Amino acid sequence: MNKSPLFLKMNPVNKQIPVLIHNGKPICESLIIVQYIDEVWKDQSSLLPCDLYKRAQAKFWADYIDKKVFSNGRNLVFSKGETQEAGKKGLIECFKVLETELGEKTYFGGETFGFVDIALIPFYSWFYVYKTCGNLSIKEECPKIRGAKGCMEKESVSKSFPDQYKFFDFSNEMAKKKFGLFMNGTITNEK
Prior knowledge:
The protein has 191 residues and is mainly alpha-helical. The protein folds into two domains: 5-40, Glutaredoxin; 52-179, Glutathione S-transferase Yfyf (Class Pi), Chain A, domain 2, CATH 1.20.1050. Helices cover 59% and strands 4% of the residues. The model is unreliable at 185-191 (pLDDT under 50).
């Protein structure tokens, strides 16, 4: 909410996070940043499949997550009444579709952690908020997504994953400042 002059200079159009500054040049938007990283450091292990069809499919599912999960989750958390219920229903539908795509695979790309997994992981931070604010238990409704098989077992993911209770507090503060809402919820130790 307190945007620095450098940040506003690097992302003057959307004025949103994240922004990656590489060689003094800004790259904006999460999925675009991940694709950029994948292309710049392609001599490392790739996040996108080499097969062009599989690559297109991974981009499709990441875009689906970015558009559908985000908008439905926002409605569930930052709305009331019918809009909130529509967000809850839409979120369950999105996660059910993603569960079907995941199937019995460890990762969306099969045995390889990749682009689609990276697109979905940030939403895991919201699971406690969804439960507390919208009475939506991802664990009960969409257990394959909640389990996410290997993602949370990866050290790079688990070490960078925010504490769900601190994230709830942050979300509550954001709801109050941006939307004038107070999230009616109590913190419990349930995971």
